[in-house]
Amino acid sequence: MNGYVNFIEYWEYSKRKDKIIYHNTWITDFTLTKENAYILMRGGRARWKIENETFNTLKNQGYNFGHNYGLGEKYLAVVFAMLMMLAFLVDQIQQLCCTLFRSVWKKLKSKKSLWESIRSYFKCFLVKSMEAIYMALLYGIHTQPLEQLIDTHDTS
After folding, report:
1. Spatial separation of the C-alpha atoms in residues 44 and 48, rounded to whole Å
2. Where are the alpha helices (DSSP H) in the chain?
3. Residue closest to 30 by CA, chosen among 9, 4, 69, 56
4. Which residues make Cβ contacts (< 8 Å) with residue 13, sequence separation at least 6?
5. What is the C-alpha separation between 98 and 101, in angstroms, rounded?
6. pLDDT digits (tens, 9 = 90+) for 76-118
7. What is the spatial distance between Cα 69 and Cα 80, in angstroms, rounded to a whole number?
8. pLDDT tens-digit profile of 6-37?
9. Measured in whole angstroms, how far is the alpha carbon of residue 77 from the centre of its chain?
């Protein structure tokens, strides 16, 4: 590598050319040509969209990425971040591959609501599988009995 970088600036205007719809810049070590500049811009734009949507999801949909885990010793914050990313990966796989997961998510309308509901089942019931939780959330506890951990009828 020669130590040089290249700069791409992209402006997208409305059809009447009176309004800027999108503007961005990128720095790259790729050699720019007339043939590849548009392709590199599209790649940079797609990457930004993916990163932006991912971090937005992690911060606002129940993963608590915005929370500062830096209260621990040395590597604790990194471990928590890695565990959160691993959970996010598993959730992404479920979104793609698990019809039951998608059905429960659709019923509860948001991931945040889904995570809160799942946590509440873990607090109150001994569950044998995630499938049991999803079935209980989708169809109700009466159709998918769960073993209760706490006695809600105990008055002492």
Report:
1. 6
2. 37-60, 76-97, 99-108, 111-124, 130-139
3. 4
4. 19, 20, 21
5. 5
6. 777 888 888 898 899 899 999 999 999 999 999 988 899 899 9
7. 7
8. 899 998 898 887 899 889 898 889 889 999 99
9. 18
Structure pTM? 0.59
At residue 73, does pLDDT exceed 70? no
| Type and span of the H or E element at 30 | none
Residue tagged 């810049």 (tokens): 25
R_g over Cα of the chain? 23
- What is the three-class DSSP state of 13? strand
Q: By CB neighbour count within 10 A (0-12 exposed, 13-18 middle, 19+ buried), where does 103 fall?
A: middle
DSSP 107: H
